[in-house]
Amino acid sequence: MLTALQRREPLVQCLTNAVVTNFTANVLLALGASAAMADLPLEAGPFAGVASGVLVNLGTPHADHRDAMREAVAAAKAAGTPWVLDPVAIGLLPVRTALAAELLLQRPTIIRGNPSEIICLAGVGMGGRGVDSVDSPDDALAAGRLLAAEFGSIVAISGPVDIVTDGVTDVRVHTGTPLLTKVTGGGCALGAVIAAFSALSDDRLANTVAACSVYTIAAEQAAADAAGPGSFAVAFLDRLAGLSAETVLKLAVIR
Amino acid sequence: MLTALQRREPLVQCLTNAVVTNFTANVLLALGASAAMADLPLEAGPFAGVASGVLVNLGTPHADHRDAMREAVAAAKAAGTPWVLDPVAIGLLPVRTALAAELLLQRPTIIRGNPSEIICLAGVGMGGRGVDSVDSPDDALAAGRLLAAEFGSIVAISGPVDIVTDGVTDVRVHTGTPLLTKVTGGGCALGAVIAAFSALSDDRLANTVAACSVYTIAAEQAAADAAGPGSFAVAFLDRLAGLSAETVLKLAVIR
Amino acid sequence: MLTALQRREPLVQCLTNAVVTNFTANVLLALGASAAMADLPLEAGPFAGVASGVLVNLGTPHADHRDAMREAVAAAKAAGTPWVLDPVAIGLLPVRTALAAELLLQRPTIIRGNPSEIICLAGVGMGGRGVDSVDSPDDALAAGRLLAAEFGSIVAISGPVDIVTDGVTDVRVHTGTPLLTKVTGGGCALGAVIAAFSALSDDRLANTVAACSVYTIAAEQAAADAAGPGSFAVAFLDRLAGLSAETVLKLAVIR
């Protein structure tokens, strides 16, 4: 799948938050995808019709962005474009929590979040501490299966071990590094990478697992090169750009 | 205080400008704090009620952000949460200049700015050249003391030597590097670090001096590693993440 | 011209997109210019009156930004401040396409774009694939000359070889690296650098060629240091900060 991605250069439309937009675009470019941040009302819809995949990340959802997100989701659905919902920091914060509930009814192709976000989105818990989770992926597994079953989504729960579920089959991705939590956008950019992989095959579970695996393998390699979070972020982009299918097959730990 | 910060992981809410939001979040994460950029109307208030400290930075204050800032400041005051005002580039620019004057009346816990901003905020001068100061910290000391006395704020004036004053006692922090002026957000991120330290003790002057000292020591270390502003910014994050209380005590030059 | 820029520290006002604003400011600071992102209605105009040069980049033109752009352009024209139009991703996307057509009538001092954008702006083609060009600079040369002749603008067409034209004389800048396309803002930040050089002499063609040459020489040097796009971006800032007129004269390939 990595080889297919590098060959096809999927065009990923990101409606994402102001904090991570630069890092997210650089992650997509390093991976070999094309990134476009078309997040305006009247533009988000037309773009979603031509994009390979769409990311809707609720990190800083100002009014204009909310309208653009609704437009992009409607257009993605109409065009059959896969789209990813990342319900950042829902729970305490009312605007994004309501928007996440609304977009969930549109049946996202994939949902990516940290455990507390997944638990909150499923309606069985309160959310985390700001953007940080207070739960583990295993705590959120039942909630993730529930969301997958009810909304037909693939659910990717990020943590020390990522869990990806379609409601029936649970896949665990064991690669990664805690340094991803020390760089802002470490989770958000994974949502964009999942959107990039989402167009590669009809097996949505496999697409999502491949994305998580590629992402965390590059991160693990970068952590080995790094003296701290600054050099980690730099090495991560270098490693994503240099990653080959052979390396992924050698280093992947997927169960 | 650095040890206390690393143990408590204060949750810092940043209402800051679009240019530096990524760097600011990464500085906070590297330091060991938690960063959340909750800057929406209807969300900024609830978040300020749970945050450890709040930064209000006027670098790109669009209408929505201005409403969110007012909301966050009111909620921070109601909850007793310390908050930092950074009056970026006031003087020539009317929207932020009026907003800074309005927020000043809310008696910020701490005010951080470059010398020209402090002079302008105190009403005794015209502001700088864009985001750059045309005055030295000593030029701004009288203005800083005036603000501290009138509004009960700690005032931190950034420059080659930072001066922190409560209106009575002036503390000078002699560490630092000119490379901080060659990376965008070098001053803005200090405002966020001050917000992170602001919750650590009841001695607001000491909290602010500690923040300035830790920040500029890590910067000084990074400058020694750097080949230019690009590698400096990377090394700065690494050094912040690796900094220990022992190193701070050894390298601090505070008078 | 590089020496003149380093001595004068031109103040560059950037009305640019949310994705690249941090990188753009860091490029300007590394180069020795001063960067200010004054992009609010009611502030963009006053600032354009004192700026050395203004960049108007249409990458994420939300409503407030559009108003600020109109204001900045009017004020720049009134003050005789040179300004650069970068019509990012026009074609498919209606809001920016209409805005680009409107601003073009204001006769930009310089227009910078990728080949597909220049072709689309001249009204002789459809635009590219998202932010990527599907045409080569030579494909866009006739369109560039047309724009230059009709609107009195210098037109800079970015690609493997940059072409700068005033409608009569075409100058080719042969330095550069494909890594500039693997870092988001690789093109957008060039627009800001052109704005920085635009105030240095009355020869607008020479100013623009100097900007493209300095930018791509630093990029070429950085590519030689880099292990991938992450370390390239870091090295690029270091190289811009370390670049001397002597090195530019030695490495420039301008025809």
UniProtKB/TrEMBL annotation, chains A, B, C:
EC number(s) recorded for this UniProt protein: 2.7.1.50
GO molecular function: ATP binding; hydroxyethylthiazole kinase activity; magnesium ion binding
Function summary: Catalyzes the phosphorylation of the hydroxyl group of 4-methyl-5-beta-hydroxyethylthiazole (THZ).
Keyword field contains ATP-binding: yes
HAMAP family on file: Thz_kinase (MF_00228)
Ligand binding (substrate): M37, G185
NCBIfam families in the record: PRK09355.1 (NF006830)
GO annotation, biological process: thiamine biosynthetic process; thiamine diphosphate biosynthetic process
Family recorded in the similarity comment: Belongs to the Thz kinase family.
EC primary class: transferase
Positions annotated to bind ATP: R112, S158
Keywords of the record: ATP-binding, Kinase, Magnesium, Metal-binding, Nucleotide-binding, Signal, Thiamine biosynthesis, Transferase
Gene: thiM
Catalyzed chemical reaction(s): 5-(2-hydroxyethyl)-4-methylthiazole + ATP = 4-methyl-5-(2-phosphooxyethyl)-thiazole + ADP + H(+)
Protein name according to UniProt: Hydroxyethylthiazole kinase
Pfam families reported for this sequence: HK
CDD domains: THZ_kinase (cd01170)
Signal peptide: 1-38
Pathway linked to the protein: Cofactor biosynthesis; thiamine diphosphate biosynthesis; 4-methyl-5-(2-phosphoethyl)-thiazole from 5-(2-hydroxyethyl)-4-methylthiazole: step 1/1
Cofactor(s) essential for the protein: Mg(2+)
